[in-house]
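Quick one, tokens below. Sequence please?
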């Protein structure tokens, strides 16, 4: 309620940035307690951290969220919706990991034809045909790498490929820092990096998939719970060879297995 997508008001703006603010209201779904607060979000265009030499757009988000209650065990999230070409032209989510990752399946077990578990990364199909959710534990994340999750898609009816990548270091590094538990499996391990494949009831109007990062837990400051996070989003357009080169630079994945 009021948080996603929120009711933002523009406080200030320039040609390359803007500052937004919104009141928010949250409900703890376990105990039904309501919390009120405020979120300030600064959005700005930024240059790519890695020189790729191809067309791109970079956006940075600085989120400062305050809830008017102390000692809350809560994490923020950053979500990005991603398009798909459907079953005939699916996209691939790529998540770099430590060696031999053990990905989690939320909702129900992800079948083998929708996931590829490789030595140092996980690939997940986005075809918006059926509901599945992938999650990566903090123990499996390569925290030294700023780029945490990316998505590659061949643009339908085009020779070009598209790649979008989420970059942030403000994520939990252990289960003890993760408080947003799974609704269906509250006692199970928690995934920090997640990806969601939706189902499209109307096949002529495909739904979206998602890339998600759970953010570091809030801290108590002056009897209020406060969460601050910086995350960036970079989008690229180019030939398959150019895009695979960008994927390697950001994610460290060479010739990834694509759906």
């Amino acid at each position: 309620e009021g948080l996603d997508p929120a009711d933002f008001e523009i406080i200030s703006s320039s040609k390359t940035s803007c500052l937004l603010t919104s009141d928010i209201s949250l409900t703890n779904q376990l105990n039904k307690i309501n919390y009120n607060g405020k979120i300030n979000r600064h959005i700005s265009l930024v240059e790519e951290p890695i020189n790729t030499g191809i067309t791109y757009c970079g956006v940075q988000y600085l989120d400062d969220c305050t809830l008017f209650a102390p000692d809350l065990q809560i994490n923020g999230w950053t979500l990005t919706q991603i398009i798909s070409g459907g079953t005939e032209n699916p996209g691939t989510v790529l998540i770099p990991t430590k060696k031999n990752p053990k990905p989690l399946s939320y909702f129900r077990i992800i079948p083998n034809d929708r996931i590829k578990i490789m030595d140092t990364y996980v690939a997940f199909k986005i075809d918006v045909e059926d509901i599945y959710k992938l999650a990566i534990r903090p123990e499996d994340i390569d925290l030294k790498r700023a780029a945490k999750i990316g998505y590659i898609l061949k643009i339908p009816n085009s020779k070009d490929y598209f790649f979008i990548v989420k970059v942030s270091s403000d994520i939990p590094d252990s289960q003890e820092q993760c408080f947003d538990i799974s609704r269906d499996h509250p006692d199970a391990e928690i995934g920090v990096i997640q990806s969601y494949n939706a189902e499209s009831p109307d096949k002529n109007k495909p739904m979206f998939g998602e890339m998600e990062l759970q953010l570091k837990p809030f801290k108590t400051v002056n009897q209020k719970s406060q969460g601050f996070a910086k995350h960036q989003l970079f989008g690229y357009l180019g030939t398959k060879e150019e895009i695979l080169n960008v994927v390697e630079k950001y994610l460290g994945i060479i010739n990834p297995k694509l759906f």
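The mean pLDDT is 93. The longest strand covers residues 224-238.
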